[in-house]
Specification:
Layout: H1 7-15, H2 19-25, H3 31-34, H4 38-43, H5 49-56, H6 60-76, H7 84-97, H8 103-114, H9 127-163, H10 167-175
Helix pairs in contact: 1-5, 6-7, 6-8
InterPro entries: DUF6633
Length: about 180
């Protein structure tokens, strides 16, 4: 039985027919460009890690995540790269526990991680440093969502005030049977 993809996921599949095509286009080098607009990363419509598995099959999110982790390790200059077991388990944990993050957010996280915004390695790879840093990133992400909601509430309040009338005017309109 063939799965039917939502229109948004089908668009991703049409644009990038295979996970390899997606990985070529959405690679770690892209971090430098998307970090310029964090709001777009948080609130854009890039596919989530979980949706990569829906589009391309089980393990697609992990396949996409692996170069992100490897690039961060290379950039940080750790003496020994993670072994296959560490890397595989780390990307599996991220894909499973944080599957709701979209790929732009994940790339923004790795950009922030490499720019020493969060925790860092001390010459050796420690997967918990990435996981703990990801939790720090989620706090920043939550703040971005709260600020956006606050701006939206403020905009709605300003719009409401444009159309609002005073109590006195309400009473006058009611008295004149306009209401």
């Amino acid at each position: 039985m063939k799965k039917i993809l939502s229109s948004a996921l089908a668009k991703v599949k049409d644009r990038f027919p295979t996970i390899e095509d997606f990985m070529v286009a959405v690679n770690p080098d892209r971090q430098l460009k998307i970090c310029e607009q964090p709001e777009t990363c948080y609130f854009g419509n890039s596919p989530t890690l979980a949706s990569l598995n829906v589009i391309y099959g089980r393990g697609a999110a992990e396949a996409w995540l692996l170069p992100e982790v490897q690039e961060a390790c290379l950039f940080m200059g750790i003496k020994e790269m993670p072994d296959n077991y560490q890397a595989a388990k780390l990307v599996r944990i991220i894909a499973q526990q944080y599957g709701y993050l979209n790929v732009d957010e994940v790339q923004l996280f790795f950009f922030y991680f490499c720019s020493a915004r969060y925790r860092h390695f001390y010459n050796t790879f420690d997967p918990s440093i990435i996981i703990l840093s990801l939790r720090d990133f989620l706090r920043d992400r939550s703040r971005a969502y709260e600020e956006r909601e606050q701006r939206e509430r403020e905009r709605e309040r300003e719009e409401w005030e444009k159309n609002a009338i005073t109590h006195e005017e309400y009473l006058r309109l009611k008295e004149n049977q306009v209401l």
